[in-house]
Recover the amino acids of this structure.
């Protein structure tokens, strides 16, 4: 049987029409679904834009909160802070305020961060205040403020206390090396300043180089080779002075590395704890 | 019709061939690059102490280092370290920094523990670590030890 082309065309036309599912791709529900998917897929920047779209349609603060949270997670801190500060919904305000001060802490805008203590909106919820106080405790540790260990430790959970105690331990006894002592030690016995700053092999080399040149100078003077005697004495003197200088520098480097390691450990701890942000239960 | 079809196939297949060069083995040079020879031998200096040290360094490079080869395990090399130290501080402090560096250079043990290793496999040890200026030291250490 031969089908007429017109029939075939009609058939194709109807199957195309009925095959097209009828839904609104850009309805708020679909945007929300898409934004949630992006958020849980850690595509935070695009998720933030989708939540922003929802907020501009519905003016519901929870979408503004979500878009700010997504901005914060994508390290777009200025947009996130501006979003969190605009939230007026009372149920979201304490969390939004905490997130705002957390961002100020990350941005090292400590003046604004510290003003959080007087913020009644954040204080309205105990959990938000507790999280803020944890950050404040870390701030005190970082900036050598007068520390009340017991008060700070009370704000932390049991699994966090051990790490915080270690940080306090470092603050109480950082194990820094005195630059003066390092210089004096090297002046008394070449190389000992370096050994004091735990550069053992460098210390030994300094002792050997100064010793060898001193011996060469002594033996040349003894043999009547005055020029060579003075030459080796000069070189020995330079190695000696260089070692005293190097020992002081070595103590300074040792102390700087200790502080950098401490700050680094604090940062790693904060990153692991997500700066004490709660799990908002968005992705299950 | 068949002839036209064959002609089309022939022309299209002939035109699709763009690479008429025969493939061959890549010529690889195994020679160690001698970039270290591209040194700044100029005597242009900002002051007399820099001029003195530059002259000394140029003499060392020309008569010893260029012939001896690229052997210093540090970056910058000891001679460049002396030059930079004097530029950053003064001739006295720069000389002390150099003698300290020279002592550390003689030490063959444990270098990996104390210095960051950079791309060219050398230990990064710039004068900025030793000027006794704590601000410069901390910013340089943070940049280089936390990489």
């Amino acid at each position: 049987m031969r089908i007429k082309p017109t029939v075939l065309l009609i058939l194709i036309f109807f199957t195309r029409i009925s095959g097209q599912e009828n839904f609104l791709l850009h309805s708020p529900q679909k945007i929300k679904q898409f934004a949630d998917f992006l958020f849980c897929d850690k595509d935070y920047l695009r998720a933030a834009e989708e939540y922003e779209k929802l907020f501009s349609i519905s003016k519901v603060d929870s979408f503004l909160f979500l878009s700010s949270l997504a901005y914060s997670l994508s390290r777009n801190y200025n947009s996130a802070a501006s979003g969190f500060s605009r939230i007026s919904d009372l149920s979201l305000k304490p969390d939004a305020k905490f997130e705002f001060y957390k961002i100020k802490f990350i941005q090292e805008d400590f003046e604004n961060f510290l003003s959080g203590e007087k913020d009644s909106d954040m204080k309205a919820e105990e959990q938000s205040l507790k999280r803020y106080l944890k950050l404040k405790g870390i701030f005190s540790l970082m900036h050598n403020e007068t520390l009340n260990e017991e008060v700070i430790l009370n704000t932390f959970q049991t699994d966090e206390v051990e790490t915080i105690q270690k940080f306090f331990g470092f603050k109480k006894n950082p194990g820094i090396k005195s630059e003066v002592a390092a210089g004096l030690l090297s002046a008394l016995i070449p190389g000992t300043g370096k050994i004091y700053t735990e550069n053992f092999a460098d210390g030994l080399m300094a002792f050997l180089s100064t010793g060898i040149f001193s011996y060469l100078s002594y033996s040349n003077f003894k043999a009547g080779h005055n020029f060579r005697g003075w030459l080796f004495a000069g070189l020995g003197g330079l190695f000696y002075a260089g070692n005293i200088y190097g020992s002081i520098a070595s103590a300074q480097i040792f102390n700087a590395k200790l502080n950098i390691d401490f700050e680094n450990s604090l940062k790693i701890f904060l990153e692991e704890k997500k700066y004490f942000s709660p799990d908002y239960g968005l992705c299950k | 019709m068949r002839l036209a079809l064959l002609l089309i196939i022939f022309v299209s297949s002939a035109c699709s061939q763009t690479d008429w060069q025969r493939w061959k083995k890549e010529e690889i040079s195994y020679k160690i690059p001698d970039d270290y020879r591209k040194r700044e031998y100029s005597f242009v200096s900002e002051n007399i102490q820099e001029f003195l040290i530059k002259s000394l360094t140029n003499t060392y490079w020309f008569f010893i280092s260029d012939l001896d080869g690229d052997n210093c395990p540090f970056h910058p090399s000891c001679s460049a370290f002396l030059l930079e130290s004097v530029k950053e501080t003064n001739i006295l402090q720069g000389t002390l920094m150099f003698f300290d560096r020279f002592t550390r250079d003689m030490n063959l043990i444990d270098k990996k523990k104390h210095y960051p290793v950079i791309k060219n496999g050398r230990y990064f040890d710039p004068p900025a670590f030793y000027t006794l200026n704590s601000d410069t030291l901390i910013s340089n250490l943070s940049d280089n030890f936390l990489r």
Q: What stands out?
A: Chain B has six helices and two strands. The interface with chain A takes residues 93, 95-104, 106-110, 114, 129-130, 132, 134, 137-138, 141-142, 145-146 of chain B (CB under 8 Å). Strands of chain B lie at 74-75, 123-124.
